[in-house]
Design brief:
The chain has 185 residues and is mainly alpha-helical. It is built from nine helices and no strands. The termini are far apart.
């Protein structure tokens, strides 16, 4: 029952985001559309911001899992194309929150994903973890900036070209660390 209720809340929340800005969605309006009690909402979520985090996390996870991604580039492209597909929803959140909140959220999501990948890469290749951390930070800042520019440009950037170019740069960066992430000599 809990999973059904959470799905109902998130699905209704997403439908509301398709129609209106995030800052106009209230718990009262949401529970009315869901036909649930206030306590039921608060049993599952601390506030509307926690619900937003959960909805975004599920959306990202679903797109990552649904792609037959062979690389981070495939995942990035799938997410960006999904942003275009759900443009109204994305901008209803983007235009409702402070730029600091958006930048922080995007940065944190990208940072955790890239860090896990780079740590695993260093472990597998026997590479230097300090260098992996540095590469991870550089990649995180670059992808975050790319995504923010994508939003600022009204999602008009060429997704394939942009991600492919980033991929070449990142591959060269990783390879420059003495055959992968290398080891300190």
């Amino acid at each position: 029952m809990a999973n059904y209720t959470q799905k109902l809340i998130i699905d209704t929340f997403n439908e509301m985001l398709d129609r209106m800005p995030f800052d106009k969605i209230t718990v009262t309006a949401l529970i009315k559309e869901c036909q649930i009690g206030r306590n039921t909402f608060y049993y599952h979520y601390q506030d509307i911001y926690e619900l937003l985090d959960e909805a975004l996390a599920q959306w990202l996870e679903a797109h990552i899992e649904s792609t037959s991604a062979q690389s981070w580039q495939d995942v990035a492209k799938a997410i960006l194309y999904s942003c275009v597909e759900h443009k109204r929803r994305i901008y209803n959140v983007y235009n409702s929150l402070s730029r600091d909140q958006i930048c922080f959220y995007v940065f944190e999501r990208i940072s955790s994903t890239v860090s896990m990948y780079m740590e695993e890469y260093a472990r597998i290749t026997g590479g230097d973890t300090a260098r992996a951390k540095l590469a991870s930070e550089m990649i995180t800042y670059t992808i975050s900036g790319f995504f923010m520019r994508f939003l600022w440009n009204d999602m008009q950037d060429d997704i394939d070209d942009g991600i492919d170019k980033l991929g070449v740069i990142f591959d060269e960066l990783i390879d420059s660390f003495d055959g992968g992430l290398g080891t300190d000599k």
